[in-house]
Specification:
The protein is of the alpha+beta class. It folds into 4 domains: 2-104, OB fold (Dihydrolipoamide Acetyltransferase, E2P) (Beta Barrel), CATH 2.40.50.100; 108-191 and 211-300, Beta Barrel (OB fold (Dihydrolipoamide Acetyltransferase, E2P)), CATH 2.40.50; 325-389, Irregular (Dihydrolipoamide Transferase), CATH 4.10.320; 423-641, Chloramphenicol Acetyltransferase, CATH 3.30.559.10. It has 11 helices and 38 strands. The protein binds oxidized coenzyme A (CAO).
């Protein structure tokens, strides 16, 4: 690293030329040929480009100043250049543009390969996000991919400004230092230095685990861990405050060099007592970050009790203040930003919340989106959604379209009954799903004659074990198998409108007609369970539903729903997709029908199936294959892995 001076080049003998614009600021990372100031004579204006790439340390001129050839413009910190100052000055002048013309006109495009920088010796690190697409314009420092080890995730920023060309990796790939990421076409007269040559973060990111040094009373000091020898690394985000509870592995601060950002995770679970670091601080290994009252440590009781008193009295005030705080609608951008700057922790949180980052207003340093921005966005988006839904004519948040206010009592006796919370929520969800999901329903009948014979043979034996064996567990198992074979049914669309989540687990919801309304408890990892195990668990969940004992967690995480009206009757119906799931199977009552077997009509037990799907995620062909496969499993019980 050396410091170089950029001076005013030969400007055709003109002297005392006015500086009309300073195009950069201290701390900016600039490229070769990037315009740093604009000069104007009475004849023309001209850009003065930098002859070197580096970080602006100081700017020696201001707007309105008059300059001549050789005057100092700025001081730049250049990596890997050992040239002495006078030589650098000479080079700078030589490389400078001709006067009164467009000095930057000599630019040319060059394609550069970007590869994985030194990531601290970590190998086979998973790519969890590709932040760019071919054709995107990126600026130096924009995240291009995010890698994740079991210790930390890290953004790999673009080393150049330019246009993204071919991308050589995809999400899920595992990479090591030197692996090709993508090509960038840069606007420069020089091919930029390779990422490998300049990546300074080294082992920091993947191995960065903060260290906790025990002090007294269960309180431990958390310091900046080994960050690969990097010094003076800027703190760009402090993710916790005194009083926050953190879990081991939660991000506590984010550091950023000019090449990468890295999260420093909490080394243990506990409560943050005090934070000794601020955004903008420059830190190195060992720098104190915070004091952590470690969860479960012997001496924790006393400090927690001490804390409890003031917290308890402060709590109501705090919540009142929170409730009264106005929601800032400007947290949601009206037009999506083309560039998103966010650290791995924020990206991870956004993924968890299903939030696309392009509409989130950034208030962090260098236009980065912080966790607070994300929270503000969610609050504003929720408020907007709620006000919109009441604006389109719903009553009391029930999601029911406004109906004319009629006096039914003039036609006879009436009673006004308050809907249960479940009924109101169901109404809201139904309206949302019916309005949002372009759904198609297709019908089929499965010949379950053999399955029924098998089930009835099993029924008595299962009853002795207290397990009720209806067709439902077979249906659940068959659906799980069909989802594994047809993964397009095991997705959820993402809020950004550009991606979907492919799930690697198979959790199936069962619609239950309970005393408090329609509820959908979820059976987990069905593909890995036997029909008997599924029957037992379904029995338990249905019982819980009927006894009104379901907890919210029992009803979350479903990938697909089965709605069986088989015990009630009917020949078919069109179930509404339970968004964000993309498929639902309606089951009607099985009946004996005559079927032609090639020689004669035979009585067969036929089960009506009605498959609704979100046509944004599943196309007709996929649905046809899903249904046919499901039918084949139900028609031949031997194909069902019991
Ligand atoms: N055809 C013929 N008989 C059927 C059948 C079918 N498709 N499905 C179940 N049966 C039989 C069962 O075998 C059982 O008879 P036996 O005791 O003689 O074996 C009887 O009907 C009663 O079954 P059940 O209702 O107790 O159990 P289930 O496993 O079929 O269903 C449950 C459980 C919770 C899904 C059901 O009770 C329920 O609540 N369904 C309503 C779901 C609903 O409201 N959906 C609409 C939502 S809008 O899309």
């Amino acid at each position: 690293m050396s410091t170089e001076i950029i001076r005013v080049p030969d400007i055709g003998g003109a002297t005392d030329v006015e500086v009309i614009e300073i195009s950069i600021k201290v701390g900016d990372i600039i490229e070769v040929d990037q315009s740093v100031i604009v000069l104007e004579t009475d004849k023309a204006s001209m850009d003065v480009p930098s002859s070197m790439a580096g970080k602006v340390k100081s700017i020696s001129v201001k707007e309105g100043d008059k300059v001549s050839e050789g005057d100092e413009v700025l001081v730049i910190e250049v990596e890997g250049v050992e040239a002495s100052a006078p030589e650098a000055v000479k080079e700078t002048s030589a490389a400078a543009p001709a006067p009164a013309a467009a000095p930057v006109a000599a630019k040319s495009s060059s394609e550069a390969k970007v590869s994985v920088p030194d990531i601290g010796g970590a190998t086979d690190v998973e790519v969890i996000e590709i932040c760019v697409s071919e054709g995107d314009m990126v600026e130096e420092g924009d995240s291009i991919i995010v890698l994740e080890t079991d210790k930390a995730s890290m953004d790999i920023p673009s080393p150049f400004t330019g246009k993204i060309g071919k991308i050589s990796i995809k999400v899920g790939d595992t990479v090591s230092e030197g692996a090709d990421i993508l090509m960038i076409t840069t606007e420069s007269s020089e091919t930029p230095a390779s990422t490998e040559a300049t990546a300074p973060v080294e082992s920091a990111a993947p191995a960065a685990e903060s260290t906790a040094t025990p002090v007294s009373g269960g309180v431990e000091s958390v310091n900046v861990p080994d960050i690969g020898g990097a010094e003076g690394v800027e703190v760009i985000e402090v993710a916790v405050a005194a009083g926050d509870k953190v879990k081991e592995g939660d991000s506590i601060i984010v550091l950023e060099t000019d090449k990468a950002s890295m999260e420093i995770p909490a080394p243990k679970s506990g409560t943050v007592k005090s934070v000794s670091i601020n955004v903008g601080d420059k830190v190195s290994e060992g720098h104190p970050v915070l004091e952590l009252e470690v969860e479960g440590s012997v001496a924790v009781a006393a400090p927690v009790a001490e804390k409890a008193a003031p917290t308890a009295s402060a709590a109501p005030q705090a919540s009142v203040a929170k409730a009264a705080a106005p929601v800032d609608q400007s947290a949601v951008l009206s037009t999506p930003s083309t560039k998103v700057h966010a650290g791995p922790a924020v990206r991870m949180l956004a993924r968890e919340l299903g939030v696309g980052l392009t509409l989130v207003r950034a208030t962090g340093p260098r236009g980065r989106i912080t966790k607070e921005d994300l929270h503000a966005y969610v609050k504003a988006a929720v408020q907007k959604a709620e006000s919109t839904s009441s604006g389109v004519g719903t009553t009391g948040g029930a999601g029911l379209p406004t109906v004319p206010d009629q006096d039914f009592s003039k036609f006879g006796d009436i009673e006004v009954v308050k809907m249960s919370k479940i009924q109101r929520l169901t109404a809201q969800n139904m309206v949302r799903n019916a309005l949002v999901v372009p759904q198609v329903t297709q019908f089929d009948k499965a010949d379950i004659t053999d399955l029924e014979a098998f089930r009835k043979g099993l029924k008595g034996e299962m009853e002795k074990q207290g397990v009720k064996m209806t067709p439902l567990p077979f249906l659940i198992k068959a659906v799980a198998q069909a989802m594994v074979a047809n993964p397009s049914f095991n997705v959820s669309l993402m809020a950004d409108g550009e991606s979907y989540v492919q799930k690697g687990y198979v959790h199936i919801g069962i619609a239950v007609d309970s005393p408090i309304g329609l509820v959908v408890p979820v059976l987990r990892d069905v593909d890995k369970k036997s029909v008997v195990q599924i029957a037992k668990e379904a029995n338990e969940l249905i019982k819980k539903a009927l006894d009104k004992q379901l907890k919210p967690i029992d009803m979350q995480g479903g990938c697909f729903t089965i709605s069986s009206l088989g015990a009630i009757g009917g020949t078919g119906f069109t179930p509404i997709v339970n968004c964000p799931e993309v498929g639902i199977l309606g089951v009607s009552k099985a009946d004996i029908e005559p079927r032609w077997n090639g020689k004669e009509f035979e009585p067969r037990t036929m089960l009506p199936l009605c498959l609704s799907y979100d046509h944004r995620a599943v196309n007709g062909g996929d649905a046809g294959r899903f249904m046919t496969y499901l039918n084949s499993l139900l028609s031949d019980v031997r194909r069902l892995s019991l």
